[in-house]
Specification:
alpha/beta
Length: about 250
């Protein structure tokens, strides 16, 4: 396998508050990396830095064999968005646009895809998650779980090399969590490279190749799920897992 993401010395500050502190990370192509940790630990800010939604204060992010994109290099950081897709916890669908229009806006504007190709691709992706019949509807007509499934395939419509998820089930009611996790599991089985920030420990156990425990703006521990959940090496990891798995 080849390395698809290389992060070195990543920092993010908001004024005097340093939220992400000197993070190094490598992700292999086809790997599913799940990030867990307490609220406020900086994990969501960290993945937002990976596709330049938050501009790093220092450090480098490299996708594939590309040149290092350094903090302050807006042109290079912006190009990351062509390689890295993101799914948010609150769907971020445009409410005034149909589902099909939500799906095709970025491929047409950013990828210069023809309207016909963008529509065909969008309908195929919607069909994949059982929502092709909703193509001409609006986000408000969908349940939370349906909106999140649309958000996932909207990200896929850009054909990213890496897909980021920021707590994709946290805004959902318990009955719809499973349908969203099912889509993510299917992507994992197909070899999609993903980084998933989540509080779903069962999902992390089942799907992750490696689990990252994030706390205080730093990576505390990284291990395969069988090791991290059964025999964590760091005391802070043990404290966290004892609390959330109780």
């Amino acid at each position: 396998m080849s390395t698809i993401l290389t992060v070195r010395g990543l920092h993010k500050r908001f004024g005097e508050n340093e939220v992400v502190k000197n993070v190094d990370l490598d992700v292999e192509e086809g790997e599913v990396l799940v990030i867990i940790g307490p609220s406020g630990s900086g994990k969501s800010t960290f993945i937002r830095c990976l596709n330049s939604l938050e501009e790093p204060s220092a450090g480098t992010v490299v996708i594939g064999n590309g040149a290092a994109t350094r903090a302050g290099d807006r042109r290079a950081l912006g190009k990351l968005r062509e390689e890295v897709g993101m799914v948010f916890q609150d769907y971020t669908l445009f409410p005034h646009m149909t589902i099909l229009a939500n799906m095709t806006l970025a491929p047409i504007k950013l990828k210069r895809m023809s309207k016909a190709d963008a529509h065909s691709n969008a309908l195929a992706l919607l069909d994949r998650v059982g929502l092709k019949h909703k193509a001409n509807g609006y986000p408000a007509e969908l349940s939370g779980g349906q909106q999140q499934r649309v958000a996932i395939v909207r990200a896929l419509a850009m054909r990213p090399r890496l897909l980021l998820f920021d707590e994709p089930t946290s805004a959902l009611d318990p009955e719809t969590v499973g349908e969203v996790l099912k889509v993510i599991k299917e992507l994992a089985s197909e070899g999609m490279t993903m980084i998933v920030v989540t509080h779903e420990m069962g999902f992390a156990r089942e799907v992750a190749d490696r689990v990252v425990f994030f706390d205080g703006g730093r990576i505390v521990e990284v291990a395969p799920p069988a090791e991290l959940f059964s025999a964590p090496q760091h005391q802070r990891t043990r404290q966290f897992l004892t609390s959330v798995l109780r």
